Each structure stands twice: as C-alpha cells, then as structure tokens.
Structures
1.
Amino acid sequence: MVTELRPVGGRPTDDAELAMRARDGDVRAYEELVARYQEVAYRVAWVVARGAGEAEDAVQEAFVKAYQHLPRFRPGAPFRPWLLRIVANEARNRARSSRRREGLALRVAAQPADAAQSPEAAALEREDAELLAAALGRLSERDRLVIAYRHLFEMSEAETAEALGVRVGTVKSRLSRAMNRLRADLVPAANTEVIDER
Amino acid sequence: MSAERLRALSDDELGARLRVVTASSWPETPDVTAAVTTSIRGAERHPSRIPLSLGLPSRRRTVLVIVAAVLALAAAALAAKLVIDIGAVSVQVLPGRPTALPSVTASGADLGRPVTIERAAEIAGFRPGMPAELGPPARVWVDRTRPDFAPTEPVARIAMAWRPQPSLPRIHGSRYGAVLLVFEGEGNALTKTLFEQTDRYGEAIVDGRIGFWTSGPHELELLDPSGGTSRFLVEGNVLLWQAEGLTYRLESMLPKSRAIHLAGTIGPATFPEG
C-alpha cells in the first residue's frame, strides 16, 4: 500500500505554540507535532538514507533528539525546517554506517498502472517514472535533498534554506545545478545501474 | 523518446513531472508516535538539566553546591539521565553501560580546515590562548558553521593539536598528545555521551572557574563543517571549562590534576574584532 504525498502547509502559529508547550514538558503537544510531520520526516529520511529500516530508525531518533533540544529552539522560528535538518542529519549518520541501500528506481518499477489511464498514457507514465526515479537515485545526497525539498515536498526557498542550513541564494544555485545533473542523467534504465555513493 | 522529452522541460516543469510520477511511489510512512512518546517519557522520569555556564566568582559556591548535589543524585539514581550544559558543549550521562560506541576517533578532517593559527583567528574572530607548557601547536583547524539546534546562531571553532612529548603521552587512537577545541557561542556544537557504569566524571575547577572532567571511553557528537553532526569515539580524558565567553575542551591522557594544571597555563584569548 502506498500513501500520497500531501504538501504539509506551514502552520507557524500552531507549530510554534505546540513547540513551546512541548518545551515546557507537554508531551501531548509534542505528539501532535510528531503526527503532523512524521510523513514528511520519513520521506526526507528515505531520500537521504535510501533504506526503509534506516529511515524509520532515523525519524524516530530525530524526533526524540528534537524534543530534547527544544530548549534551544528559537521561539517563533519555523518548526518544520528545523526538524527536517535534524532528520536529514540523523539519516545521514545512519546511512554512513549502513551497507543496505535500496535504489529509488526499484520502488517506482513496482507500481501498478492507473486503471483510468489509457495503455499509452500508462506506459508513458511508467517510462517517465522509471527514468526520473533512476536518475534521482544516481544523484548525490546533496542534489537529491534540494530537489526533494523544492519539488517533491514543495517547500519554499526560505524553508529549504533553513532546512539545509544555507542561504537562499545557495538554494537557488544548488537546485539549478542539481536539476541540470538530473537532466543529464536521464538515460534509459537498460543503460544504467544504481551507483553506491560510497 | 521519454528521456529527450523530459530533458527539454524547464526546471519547474521537470520538477512538477517528478512530483507527479513519484507521488504514488513513496513507501508507507510508519507511525512512530508511540515509540517517540515512550522514549521521551522514559527519559523524563528523572529530568535533570543544569547550566554550567556560570563563571562569576560570586556564584561559584552556589554552583558548586548545585553541581555536587545533582551529580550525587545522578549517581544514586541509576535510571536517571543527566544533561549538563557547559557553553557550547552538552554532556549527557546515561544510565548503564554503552551497547555500542562509535569505532572511529575524530581526525583532522573532522575538525575543520587546516590553517595557521593566524588564519584561524581571522576566520573565527578570536585567537585562543595557548598552554604555555606545550609551545606552538603542531596542527590548527578552523570551522565556522551553524549547529542543527540553533539555526540562527553561528559557531566558530578552533582546534589545536600537540604531538606527544615526554610529559604528554599519546592519546589512544590518535597521533597527538593533546587536542584543544575552543568554541565561541552557546549553540550546541558538541555533545558528549557518558555512561554511568563505565565512565568517571565530576566537576573540576580551572583557574577559579567551574568545569567538568571525565575519563573513560565515551561518545562525542561533533558539529561538522557542513552543519550536520558526526559521531566519534573518545578514549582520552577530557576537561571542559569556560572563560571569556569561550568554551574549552582539552583532551589528553593526563590525569585530572595534571590536565587542570595544563589548562591553567592557557593565556587569555584575544578578540581582534572587538
């Protein structure tokens, strides 16, 4: 079973209030934040670690770590990019120490066709999906992450900058280069193999 | 052909296409709420968090009493988790013994860019004092980045290392006899994880200021140049203290009294930018 990605809209006031209550020891308030952001957190971890097991562990640990560091969370700052930065870092640490890798292309190839589509449209969709997911999977983690934040999770440039810990201008240039590399890497699956970064 | 058609799309069009075709491809998100809550509640049964960022002599006695009391309580309550903040360094003491420590120690590349001390001072905005007994450091690294948990607060770090000397034995797993890290700011730039059953720890007074001492293998989580963190094994003895708004971390194989003496020979820092 798959879930559809829903852009997680910014709810800064609610998030800030929940974060402050959680900081003061209200675990239920933090549960609400976990429920609200675990989907996007898991997907970010999966983009970085590329393994379901590592991603789940990373998300769990990142939420615990974020809770412990709430006293250092700046009141009024956006919670989501702050959290995602912790998630990505945790996933990165786990990916470094793990040998398991799952290519993104494998997941796309396993998807069934939409019954409402014509056979031609379904074939085109499938071909695009395979090409794009394979190319995305061959990019560096840095490129994958900036593309994921901006295009898959539809985060603003400011939010992406906060999540990556860089300036907005750097997001623009990094994204542009990443998209060029993605484009250059669009080659038929038969001519490619999933490359291990390490 | 799909590849050619996709290549012809603009960045925004290609991003939108990517979003559409991967929308149904994500693995199902596991619900971690219960596991996270359980971890948090477990750690909170005995919450203890004390700031050690107090260098004022008038507060010294009070701080000492607080530290001694909390450390005694932590030793008695084996299920407790103790967190102590010392400037840019956070120390957490976990009950029991480690199940798995990192296998690698921090190397030069993990400490920042290798530079001269003059260049390090220029980049960091301060020049730390040197331990008079050791002479100039063999290597200097600098890093200026932002910690994960304080996104708006940049942290400058200068690391210096000295080769082993007759009175300065080599640190296990390292080529150096002493490594001094100096942090500017209060952002969490380094986290140490100690374990009740395998590590020794306690307060230490460095040049009249309250500090922290630990010996025994433990874990160090260090802010790396990209702004993320990496975990390392520490096998040396570590002394932490604050002075002039900087946080100092001295690692060596020296016993506590010798390390405190060496730290006391460190001269004042200078701040060229005012």
2.
Amino acid sequence: MKARAVGSLFLGLALAFNAHQRIESAERSASETGLVAGAQQRPDAVIPGVPTIVSSPLKLAKAIRIPGLTLGAVDIFWVEESTQRLYFADRTNGSVDIIDTSNDTFVTRVPGFGPPTGFGNGPNGVQWVPGNKLWVGDGPSRVRVIDLNLSPPSIIQTIDTGGALRADELAYDPADHILMVGNNYDTPPFLTFISTDTYAILGKLVMSDATGLEQPVWDPQLNRMLLNVPNYTDLRGAGVAVINPVTRTIDKTYQMPNKCEGTGLALGPFQRLLVACGRPIIINAVNGNVINTITQVRSGDEVWYNSGDGQFYVASTDTNGSPVLGVIDAETATWRQNVPVGRAIRNVSAFAGNNHIYVASVAPPAGTPDTSACASFGFVGVGCIAVFTH
Amino acid sequence: MRFTLAALFFVGVFVSPLAAQAQGTSRYDIAGGYSYLHDQDISENLSKGWVVSVGGRVMKWLDAVGEVGGNHKTLSIPGDPPKIRVLALMGGPRLTGPGYRRLTPFGQVLFGAAWARTSVLDVGDSVRDFAYQPGAGVNWNLGPRVGIRLEGDYRIIRAEGSNSKEPRFVAAAVFGLGR
C-alpha cells in the first residue's frame, strides 16, 4: 500500500513535469514559427470571450498593390483566421482577390464574377466555410462557391437563388451547415438558405416589409443569424432581425433609434453587437438594449470586430466629413480613435493573428490628385489595400 | 528547470522520516472556506470564491485529496454586466510536513479539470480543460479536530495549445474525522 502510494506520488510529479516541458516546447515552437505575432497577441484564453484590449494607437503601416485594372470598386472583405487569408470582392477586376495576411502580399485572384455595375452586379459578399470553400454573392442572383484547395482556386458551383438582381451579403451557420444569402435589391428582398454540404436550397424567407438587406452575422451563442435590415416600407428605420436559419423564421427584431439607415453588423465580446446605422450603435444582441451610440465617427458600410485587440472598426468619416478609420473599444463600447486616411475608404477587416487592419482605398477619378493612403507608399492613382497596425 | 528544483525541494522537505513524527490524529479531514483567484491571462481578480476539500490518510505523511472550488466575478462595464465563472474539480497527493507547535505545513499537487464560463444574461460560452495545481500551506491546529488552513496554489490550465495561470489564495476551516 505504502509503495503504491509513493509510486503514485512520483508518477504524479513526473506527469506534471512532463506537462510543463510540453508547454514550454509548444511555446517555443509557436514563437519560432512566427505564428505568435508580436507581444500584444496573447495565447487563446482559458476563459472564453474575454478580449485582450490593445490600447496603443493605430497607425497606417503599409499598402498592398493590387495587380490588374486600377482598383475602383470593391465590396466585402473577409479575413479567415485559420487560413491566414484576406478574401475580398474586387468588382473592378470581376474577381475575388486573395491576400496573405501573415506577410501582407497579394496571393492570387479568382476571376469569373460580375457584372461590375448595376443592381445585378457582383461580386458582393464573401464568406469562408470549413472545407476551405469561399462562398460569394454575385450578380445576377447567383451564389458562387470557390474551392480554395484547388491550384489555382476555382469556382466549382453556381447556385441560382431565383431572383432577378444581385445576391449580396452572406453568413454561415456552422452548427447546421447552412449559408444564408440576401437578395437585397429584389422587390421584395428575400433571404435564401443553402446547405453547404449538398449545395441544395433549403428554403427562403421573404422580407416583405423590408426595403433592403444588409450585413448578416452568425451569433454562435444565440444560435441565430442576426441581420441588419436597413429600413422598412413604413420608413421606421433600421432593425436587426434575429433569424432562426433552420426554421427560416424571424424570432424578433430590434428596432434601431432615430429612424437611422442600417448597413453593417459586427458581433463583439459579451454579445456586444455593433450596428452601423448612420452612427455606430452598440447594442446587446441578447435583448436589443442600446449600450452606447458613438458620435465621433460615422458608421460606413461593412464593420468588423477584431478579437486580437478587442476593437470594432468602421471605415467611414469623422464629424467634419473627413475620411477616417474609426476604432471603438468593444468591451466598454466607447470610441477610441479616428485614423485619418486622406481619401474615402470602404470595407474593413482584420487579422487577429497580428492585428493588421485592412481597408480598401480605391483610386481617385482620373485627373484628380491622389491623397489616399496608397499615394504615400508610391501607389499613385491606382488604389490599394491599406494596412493599419498598432 | 525551475519546476525540477521545485519538485526536488518538495520531495526533500516533505518525504522525509521527520514527516512521520508530526502527522495528525484524524484519518480524514474536511475543509471549506474562501478562495481568491487571479487569472493572469485576462488580468482579472476573481475575488468571490469558495473551496471544499476532503483528505484521507494513506500513510503517516501522505494524504489523498479531492477538491472542488469555484470563483466568479461580474465585470463592471457599460450595459448588461458579463459574468465570469471558473470551477475546478481536482485530486491528488498531499504531503504533510513535521509540525511546529500548532502549525502543520503541507504541500500538494492536484490534477483534474477546470471549467470556465463567460455569460451575459445567461447567454454565454463555456470550456473545460485539463488543469494541475501545485500548492502549499499550513494548518493552524486550534484543537485536536479543528483548525484553520492558509494555502497558496498556482493553477495551470492547459487550453487550446497554451496554458493559463491562475494563482489562488485559500483560507478555510479544517475539521478532522475518524482515527
């Protein structure tokens, strides 16, 4: 009995020692491979959902030149942490472009999207889905699926959502393998729910009282899609619809104040939901209560939450109408900083692995001076992806 | 290396013939009290906490220990306040050192699981991970079967390829049972 007890004790100590060794080894390995990017990036927390706030100011760091036609029109940006890639809708080149976020370089382009203008235009929304597929809202009324495993990545599926105009923004429900996409310009606008396993259309939800559809986001804790509805036919202003993607029904709608017009949507920590509605409005996604309305910056189109630094980002203008990248502390729901960008920017995303923030800076009209972030890096009159860091 | 030295120190101090001279008279002990935990990962103090532990004598200087403890905190930020909870269920060996007057030192290494949950209005996210917890303390024996325990621990939770560290302080009442 005594021998067994002593043996157990030393076995315990040995296990603890071994575990400690493995931890040190894992930390060394991550450091050597560069996957732990910078001291500000903490390892995954054991307590879920608590953000690490990076309070140092954000500044313009570099610009990424996009090959092909001068960058004139873009839409949704999506950074996928697992692949370390930024995917964005490049309407100018009729493509989805791919950026390596670990070194901020252009990787490749997947062509075959469009047309670039009109109500049936594309590409629009982009959404990465496990299996390394990228789902893209395209015109007219088509959803394309890119297989990113192929070399080069190529479109492998085209799904007609049955509308007349463009298929726009989309979101993915990983619990049920359902992708939701909005036909925002059709009358009435409608949502289509597609199985990401079989590519079959599971059903639709017609939003008969909505004037359009904007950014959706999946809420994994509520198990619901949240959708920014920009306005309703009675002009009561934007609402956030809480949608069950399995039953394809609306559970409830959070009405936004002051009849504002909605655009983007981003889910942060503690169910804090940034609703772009003229101003950034931060609400509780559980009950719709407004936590704070940000007054120092307008809200722009797409908005993003970066879990790497605990900040919401908006690409918009300040109170004087000057183009800025707005930074909002997601935990306290307070404005933190406006970073001047010289010329209008649109769409924003971030890579939490190194806290690089990406915005599209499109080229100015021919003959006008280029005051954009791109020009300060020598890319005059061509547009670029501007990269900001702390 | 630091861990090796700590382990050698632990064994040297507690696994010695002297340890046998100062064992308690009770076959079992049960302790319950307050715990204060700091999570280094999120830089938060979880000052509301509790702990219950049960020990059974295996040898004169060796107990087998089971412990359950929880800590929680409500964050003071605008809007509906988020709640953080940590719960740990652990067990392992405890070595009791030679007593000095009414003080009996001990050291232990516990292994088990830690649960962490963050929620707002009861909507939240939780995880469970492997944890181990070296610690040491002293029992202040007020009588043959009752005492006060002061204890410090260093819980390490292995989560998603990294480790989170949670130093903890415990103050508890200890009761002896059996002979």
